[in-house]
Each structure stands twice: as C-alpha cells, then as structure tokens.
Design a protein that fits this description.
Layout lengths: L1 E5 L10 E7 L6 E11 L7 E8 L2 E7 L1 H12 L6 E5 L8 H5 L3 E2 L8 E7 L5 E10 L17 E12 L3 E10 L4 E9 L3 E8 L2 E7 L1 H10 L8 E4 L11 E2 L4 E8 L6 E12 L6 E10 L14 E2 L3 E2 L2
Parallel strand pairs: 17-19
Antiparallel strand pairs: 1-9, 2-8, 3-6, 3-7, 3-9, 4-5, 4-8, 10-18, 11-19, 12-15, 12-16, 12-18, 13-14, 13-17, 20-21
Length: 316
C-alpha cells in the first residue's frame, strides 16, 4: 500500500542558512519520494544552493542545487511547477513495479535508523519550507508480489564530481561513481553550455560513441524523455527497462566528453545516479572521463550541473 504523510517540520529555516529535517516517521517503511513545498516571501528553487539526504549520518544523495534537481526531474517527467521540488528515490517511468521501486529506501532491509534532509538556502525573504513523503508498506514488496528480497537493501544515490579543466583539448578525469560491490550505474547528467560530444567505453569497446548533443536529444525524445537546455544525459535506461545499467564490477570508462570551452580554468560538475545493494557505501573515484574542449574565449567555463548514475550516480 502507498500513502503520503506530512513530515516533521524543518528546523532553522532562514533567509540564508541550512534547514534540517530529521525524521522518525519514515522508519519502518519504504521511502519512495519526498516533496518539498517552498513558501513564504521571496523563495525560489534557485535560492536552494544545495540539497542533501543523509542515511545514518552519511550523505547518499547530493549535494545538488534546487535548480539542477529540478532539471533532473524535468528530464524524466516534465514537471517544473513553481514552488515544488521532488527528491525521487524511484524510477517512475520503469516498465515494471519491481524496476520502479529498485532503489527506494526500504528502511528495515537497509538498516536505516536515521533519515535526514538538509537544505542550504541563500538570499530568500522570510522563507517557509515543508515536506511530504510518499511511503509504501514493506509488505507490498514481498516475494509473493514478485519482488526479490536480495534487492530490498538497494539504495538510490546521487553522487557529484567536480572536474577542473585548465586547457582546451581532450582531458581524462575520474568520476565518482560510488562504492565497490553490487552497484548499478543508471544515468549520468552533465549540465554544460560547451559540451559538443560524449563517448563511453566499456572494456575497450565503445558503447556510446561520440554522440553529439543534438542527436542525443533526438534519441531521448524518441523514448519520451524531455531534453533540457544545456543538460547532456547519458541514459542507458531511457526505454524504461531496468536491465541495462552498468554494473559496478565491470571495467568501465567514460570516454571522451567533447566540448568547447576556454583554455582558462573550467569546472565540470557531474552527478552519478546509482543504486547500491548494500547497507552502507563509501564512495571512491573510479570511472574515467575524457573531455574534449576547443578554444572558445567567450565561454570561460564548463557549466556546473549534475551527472547521475542511477543505482546511483550523480555527476540521478
């Protein structure tokens, strides 16, 4: 059974500061989504500089800004209603309920005893911030309903990477895609105004070869995804089937990301969305990114944005 409850109030909701919500209400349930409601005076998504979710004190989702989280959601669902944000731990467009709920936080199976949301706010005026949570009974995910108990502890994570760029040309960089075992890399989000193509190699074989943004956008639209301006998404699950994520154990490399940018210092902000089947995860750097830049003095930086590996990567 699915139900929606209002969460405990955020503490320290200030014009500039960090609002914190620590919930006990969610314990014993499966957490699917959290809905944030922005109110008060002047308070927009752009004034949220970071959102993060902590499980038992460890950050597993974020940091991601309100603007970028909104882009991630709009890519999948085209919902950008003013004053609302969704923190999603599911795959709402999956072709089966088992795929949809892979990564939802089963607090019992994953050993979650503390669920905390932190929201960093800058420049608001008398803001208010409330949250509702979409929950599910763990009993609805039983083997009798077609669910595999071995996947119950799976956690969806959104993991960021910052890549400094000091010169034009192709660069190689590690992407933070999470911990060692039993991880599924679902999606990579790159928000940039200067990206010109992207390539991924797996075990020396091109599996996504120098795809330019216009072609990538066309392919995504074919599958009902909604391409967002200045956001490039590598999405092996765009057809809704959950059987094609990149498994963590493979020798996987992100190769080349091609883009145009100034040879002066630039920063790429990447989020990896991944799902990790384990009780806790320590992230490390491992995936290789090659980025190509050409000299464009008017564009001094590779835009900040998310890359996501679902099952969990952020670079969601």
């Amino acid at each position: 059974m699915q139900f929606i409850r209002k969460l405990e109030p955020f503490q320290n909701v200030l014009a500039t500061g960090r609002a914190v919500l620590s919930s006990k209400l969610v314990l014993g349930n499966v957490i699917e989504r959290v809905y944030l409601v922005l109110g008060g005076g002047a308070f927009t998504k752009a004034m949220i500089t970071a959102i993060r979710v902590r499980l038992n004190g460890k950050v597993v989702f974020g940091d991601v800004s309100g603007t970028n989280l909104d882009l991630v959601q709009r890519y999948s669902l085209l919902n950008n209603t003013v004053g609302f944000l969704t923190i999603d731990f599911t795959e709402p467009t999956a072709r089966s309920i088992q795929g949809q709920l892979l990564g939802a936080y089963n607090t019992n199976a994953a050993g979650i005893t503390d669920f905390t949301i932190e929201v960093d706010i800058t420049g608001a005026t008398t803001p208010t911030l409330d949250a509702w949570v979409q929950l599910r009974s763990p009993g609805s995910m039983s083997p009798a309903n077609g669910f595999d108990p071995a996947t119950s502890p799976a956690l969806r994570a959104l993991i960021p990477t910052t890549i400094p760029v000091t010169a034009a040309g192709e660069i190689q960089a590690d992407v933070n895609y999470g911990s060692g075992g039993n991880s599924l890399i679902k999606r990579l989000y790159i928000i940039s105004t200067v990206l010109t193509s992207f390539r991924i190699k797996r075990d020396a074989l091109d599996i996504f070869e120098t795809v330019v943004p216009t072609l990538n956008t066309f392919i995504e639209l074919d599958y009902g995804r909604v391409a967002q301006a200045n956001m490039y998404v590598w999405d092996p699950l765009m057809d809704g089937n959950q059987s094609d994520p990149i498994r963590r154990g493979a020798r996987t490399a992100r190769r080349p990301i091609s883009s145009s940018c100034s040879p002066r210092r630039a920063v790429a902000r990447i989020w990896c969305l991944r799902t990790c089947i384990q009780r806790s995860a320590r992230c490390k750097r491992g995936l290789l990114c090659l980025l190509n830049y050409r000299r464009t003095p008017a564009t001094p930086h590779l835009g900040r944005g998310p890359t996501c590996c679902s099952a969990g990567f952020r670079a969601s």
